[in-house]
Structures
1.
Amino acid sequence: MRILIPSIQVPFISGGSTLMTEGLKHALIKAGHQVEIVTIPFKFSPNSYVSNLIDIWKEQDFNNFNGYKIDMVIALQFPAYYVKHDNKVLWLMHQHRSMYELYKEEIASKDDVLLKDKIHSNDSSELSNVTKRFSMCENVSKRLLKYNHLSSIPVYHPPAYEENFYCEESYDYIFYPSRLEELKRQDLLIEAMRYTISDVCVIIAGDGGQKEKYNELIKSYNLEKKVRLVGFISQAEKETYYARCLGVFFAPFDEDYGYITLEAMLSSKPVITCVDSGGPLEFVENEKTGFIINPDPKEIAKKIDWMYFNKNEAKELGENALRSYKSKNITWDNVVNKLLG
């Protein structure tokens, strides 16, 4: 089949959405299909740009291109999922989060209200016309049902370089690789290190807008010896940090999916996450493959110290995590079979 994947690209920013889109393309090609990703640039402001982009995508007809019949469209994200096609499948990555669960009515402008209403209305009407609706996880499905009253079937996919993750004997550090953004809540982990009593330290990898704030936080609490911000790291370095860590901290706010959880599980490492972290809660089993706790630095510190003082038990949690991952059929073959079936 000839399959198109409509998508958006924020210039100079690459993350989970890019990995998911590219992963789908490669899996479909491996299955014997002709596949292209068709992108339009995206920026988050002003609201008028986002509003105009909705209209642009709604005008796109992907049924034919230059005499070539397109057999299927698989749409993943806002606003690319508005594209027209007679055989459109939705595998929802996320909607426009700032106008849904992250929307703050108390600070919203009139333009914000207008854009929110336009997005909610178009999502509800346009996506209701898609007969095959999937999502990348239960958390995304729950949002679609809550806000738009539309059901969808969660289908998990593996992280990039799944086969490269491995496990070695642990060193005395907790690892957290992610963009340094407010929603990722690295500050919770930094704060927690004020209360640890063990010799464990923290390695935070990644770059982003909160880097300066986190550096100041570390200095203000005199945590230079206990918390390291190592910046951007290569894929190979990330795999090594996972392999040798005592455990992984991943407690964002209401995450869509979260490759970090899966990467930790593939590395046979337990994960500390929080009750409001969203996607990770679909994989972490409290006291079996990791810990699910309140977003409280003192509670986090206790679990970090527990891992340090109970290394054999922490290792068992990590081994349980790998077994759990393998039991869930998180494969690209399964994704392709579900979306095309």
2.
Amino acid sequence: MINPLFLKITFLGTGTSQGIPVIGSKHPVCLSQNTKDKRLRVSVMVEWDNNIFVVDCGPDFRQQMLRANPKKIDAILFTHEHADHTAGIDDIRPYCFRQGDMPIYAHKRVIEQLKIRFKYIFATENRYPGAPNVKVNLIKNQPFKINQKQIIPIEGFHYKLQVFGFRFDKFAYLTDVKTIAKEEIDKLKNLDVLVINALREEQHISHLNLEEALELVSIIKPKRTYFTHISHLLGFHDLVQQKLPEHVFLAYDQLQITI
């Protein structure tokens, strides 16, 4: 059991939508033997007291759960509907079989997309008995609670697509963000830890690049920052880390921190 005064964060995956290594790529980072250069699709697990939340459920979810080995999951929060954040939802079945309906929290638009892609999960008639069961909780840009823990959504934009980040106490997690309004940045003051995407050095239409992510960190001023949703084009983990300011770190798969 986690001390109720602390949060334990496990980085389940820290890669971009293709993961690292990219299939068939001969890029040096994809050929790296450093385990920190091998990244599954992006996701985190947040533990507090006897509660376990997962943010996003991508195509590597099964592998991530086998690796992290949580015995239960109390809720899954979705940042947005893209496949690298949702495509693993069928693999929640073992948890559903043991626990019953899995609570999921997402914007209404995200749920509507999941109903299209995974119609059998949300079916109410002629339902396949082996499908996972979910309990849908629609969220808006206002605080909500899961098991007495207040969670504050942070709205950003992934090109023109609205996405949610989430603040748990003095920890905040944002991924796939390109722009964020001042009033949303104001929700991120007085953080102990900020996790935010930093895709690569070059500009990208829908993701913060390294320079933009560092600029945002300088505005928010968290005590520590971890970059995630990392492309092989950012470079070798150890070399990039050497260039980062003090208290700014590259996250890597299976990294655990306590707040």
3.
Amino acid sequence: MTLALRPYRATDRAACAAVFRRAVREGAARFYDAAQREAWAPDPAVPRGADKLLAQWCVVAERDGSVAGFMSLTPEGYLDMAFVLPEEMGRGTAAALHAALLARARAAGLMRLTTHASHLARRFFARQGWQLDAAETVTLRGQRLDRFAMSRDLHEGADVPA
């Protein structure tokens, strides 16, 4: 079962939307109730409008030819999307995607990355050397969700986890 990374393509939109929905609806179930998860990842399965991932640095992970996860970073250094299928959790998929985005950020000369992480993502990012800046509560479609502002220093000599 081979994992391969590649750049996002417009034709990935539906598959990445499905990964997002499953990651939120199933993977985040320990941390957010059903109403919160529905507010976070509502129907329709594929978002309408412009595909924001085409304007970001987005990496897709494929396992045996199927999309297993993706992560995206804006040119300014905001890690916007970071999702893997529930069955990919703990298999190194997120770590591989993260490493690819860090390499891209460093090559672009970015010195600091930021994100807003869920309860589940916060644990992953902390293991990758991100620091917690602030806990926040946001309201989305009438539901209150906890999230965490985090940042990652990319300066030469910054702590890099083993």
4.
Amino acid sequence: MFKRVLVANRGEIAVRIISALREMGIESVAVYSHADRDSLHTTLADYAFCLDGNRVQETYANIEKIINIAKITNSDAIHPGYGFLSENPKFAEAVEKSGITFIGPRSDVIRLMGYKIEARKLMASLGVPLVKGTNTAIHNYEEAVEIAEEIGYPVLVKAAAGGGGMGMRIASDADDLKQVFEAVKNTALSLYADDSVFLEKYLSKPRHIEVQIIGDNYGNFIHLGERECSIQRRHMKIIEETPSIAISPQVREEMYKTAVLIAKSVGYNSVGTVEFIYENGEYYFLEMNTRIQVEHTITEMVTSVDIVKEQISIAAGKELSLKQKDIKFNGHAIECRIYAENPAKSFIPSPGKIINYITPGGPGIRLDSGVKTGYTVSTYYDSMLSKLIVLGKDRDEAILRMYRALSEFYVEGIHTNIPLLISILECDDFKKNNINTKYLEKHIQNIKEYCQKRKTTYLAIDNLNN
């Protein structure tokens, strides 16, 4: 087992990893920017080293600095968390070449699954269902128009590199496509240093369903069930839950088999997530995230499996400690992402000092947080503060428990999205599970009016259409 691990991240995921390392008897090394000098993860780690700077490229995305600190501290391994360098094959390869262990899949797997076009080609060869689209990069607008007319509008223009909801826009017609095509190319070049894009048919009311998988270096693979991630704002997840009560037992089992098949086909040797979109009883491959997911917490709640510890053990050369028959699912879990942003003003980030930070507790409640009272939220990084997770015996109880927990969550000094989350939980369509990835844009006006009617003690929500 490792003696010392460098955590190449910040915020709540760095805290989560450091906690797991401590429980495993492994020393942790934190890295931090100037803005994060007094952050929680630097306080909790055994050692902490400054990355000298604030901008992402000079700190948490600086491969040379991070590897040098790992060498100086005699770290056996580097855990990338999520975001930043976690799905950067160049980083994983550089770590491998340095003789330090990368806690994640091999760099060749990250490269294959991170480039969506190659991933689509692989899925096609495996017979995995795919949304109608292109399996080659599109380089000019004229080519894009020709393909879009063949697929049928509306279409999604997507960055070939990267993951998640970044670098993705909808085009409703040829005129719209011209602007969207250039915008996505520019975004892709800025975010991923690769302006390759491709097209997919846009589904009008899909659900976002993903399957958690784990593989080791000895050919063992298991899944830990699925997560419903359909509540999104601009393709970024806000609320996640497990299990999904929208899919049938038959479709669920097919998704599990497909996810494990994909993992086996690439020799996957870490924790990862296979993402699907689901509509009208059919599911389609979306992408594979070759890292720990933000929402891994709800899977841990219903399975009692510590996914981060399992990931670290596999990287250290251990076999999977579990077989598929060992995995039991109990109850229903929901996660809400708490952001420092102002829903009343177009969701602009809300930096500043947290004067008071009172968090909920009680049965079935978990909080993964990267902040504390006195912490100053900076403008340099993602505005997520923490993740609130609840477990109930069923979905109804989980919703009520989350509502109670959010109502007891108090953050003074900055704005948060807590009022928006409460409003969603109180919406009849959410309670009845009438949701899809377009839920928020459909219900935003009703949510705003409901909040104003309720006169909640939290921030008044206004101008949510922006």
